[in-house]
Each structure stands twice: as structure tokens, then as C-alpha cells.
Amino acid sequence: LSIFLISILVIISAYIMELFFNYPPCRLCQYQRIPYFILIILSIVAYATKPKVIFYYLAGLSILTNLSISSFHSLVERKIISYDSGCTSKINEFDNIDELRNFLETVPITKCDEISFAILGLSLANINVIISILLISITFNILFKNEKKI
Asked: Which of 4, 10, 129, 144 is least enclosed by beta carbons within 10 angstroms?
């Protein structure tokens, strides 16, 4: 239940930020939403079925995937690693005006390597890392503590 509620809260928060506060997600932000949707679906299926142990393993895999994406995104935002996918800044990398025009027509509005919103110095990707660690802790705690009850 806690995994379901946290996942719902994260998705609702992401869409509120996007739709009401005009913070469109970058490509990596969009990728980070996918594991939460998977967790919501898994939670619903797990609620209706038994045994639940498979749910916790699949949830753990989904959370670890999200942890990987959000950690990678955090490193890209902090310019520790580069990510050249068309969603990073390419200032002064054009030989002529046509290259610049083509780039501007195809590039996403929000850049993956720029922090558009921060809370206490933490970007949303950083906060997602923290949430993922919390979720994986909950999942593994349930798995290892109550494995025989599941």
C-alpha cells in the first residue's frame, strides 16, 4: 500500500508541476515516470492476487531502474557526466544558421542538463533518487522481514 501511495503522490506531483506551474519535463524526467506507472499497476495487481512475493521482486526491479535513471539524470544536471541526446545544451556548436535552425526545430524545450526547479538545493531528479532509496528500502524490508508471510 505504501509503494502504491508514494507512486501516486509522485506522479500527481509531477503532473501538477508540469501543468499548473509550467515546468515541462525533459526527456529523462519523462523516463523517470515510467517505473512509477509500473509500480501503480503492480500494486493494483498484487492487491487482487496471491502470491505477492513476485510483486515485491518486480517492484524492486522497477524501483532500481528508476534509481538508475534518476541517479544518471542527477549526474547530467550537475555536469559530472555528459548526455548528448538532443536534450542537452549545445550552445556554440553550429557551423551555420541552417544547423542552428534545424536544431531549434527538433530540440525539446526543457534540457536534461539544466536544473529548472530546486527545493533546498535539490533538483527533482535528486529528490527522485531519495524517494527511490526510500521505496527500495520499504520493498526489501518487506521481502526479507516477511518473506514467509507473503
From this structure: 144
Q: State which amino acid sits at residue 143.
A: L
The amino acid present at 94, given as its one-letter code, is F
Short-list 137, 134, 113, 135, CA closest to 123: 113
| DSSP letter string, 79-134 | TSS---SSSS--TT--SSHHHHHHHHHHS-SS-TTS---EETTEEHHHHHHHHHHH
Residues with pLDDT less than 50, the chain: none
Q: What is the pLDDT of residue 98?
A: 81
pLDDT of 59 = 93
Tell me how far the alpha carbon of residue 80 is from its chain's centroid.
Answer: 18
Q: Which residue has the cell 542527477?
A: 74
Distance of CA 63 to the CA centre of its chain: 10
54: exposed, middle or buried (C-beta count within 10 Å: 0-12, 13-18, 19+)?
A: middle
Question: Which string of b and e fits 112-139 if b means at least 16 CB within 10 Å?
Answer: bbeebeeeeeebbbbbbbebbeebbebb
Task: Give the other-Cβ count within 10 Å of 60's Cβ.
Answer: 18
Given a contact cutoff of 8 angstroms between Cβ atoms, the answer to whether 84 and 150 are in contact is no
